[in-house]
């Protein structure tokens, strides 16, 4: 980049790089972080990394796309907070299905009034697998979280008590199916042990010390963690189903954006949000969840919502891959 290059061009390059870095805080299935960003002048590309896809649990790439969608929304939040308007082109190249999105910075714009709070929530958000408090989350807060997801083009249906029981049955069936599959168990062991890439996976301090007693079964990770949990049973937990009208990769990507929006909103409101994907991973139970939608939509993910249990220490943060492994700046190096 020469001295004659406008200041805004230098600023947009820096903003895109910073947004890609901020997207590293995004959640992903088993903390696989299956994305890589490529920073270009005035553009940012999001690529899937198939080497970090759950080949057995997620052969279609549904959970990979949802995970990458959370990173996409995180990047959008960061760019807005940095004062840049962007356009987003999802799955822009049919010949390259691993190019999931291209963000183009269009012009400087006023920062949202809540931009500092949004960035703080982005950094504070974490997955809490402990049972939630026995005090129910306010209904208005739950509706606000659902509305945040819907604003991203994916619906979030809050489930009634009867539907929660159907969800619990589906989750239990899915757990039974996956427990009997040695390839699924081996994959889970890989991402909860030390075999996965450094900076990924689920260490012991984010996994419960014993299986929580909950209405909807939590995932059995096959090993005990070190995260202490209280005596709660999730009696006051609420559940929502993220769903859409179609079941294609672009819908999964949008579902990830909706998950991120809902999660950041929940963090701002002091509500614990935990995604549950086991019942989505098994074909038969995913079809069972469709019945909760009267077969009018396709389920992408289950959300458990509630007030966090404050009786113990908060769970640790999951590790993150080094920035240089997820952000490629080779196209702009030496240009500023």
TrEMBL record:
GO terms for molecular function: oxidoreductase activity. InterPro entries: Nitroreductase-like, Nitroreductase/BluB. This is Nitroreductase. It comes from Micromonospora polyrhachis.
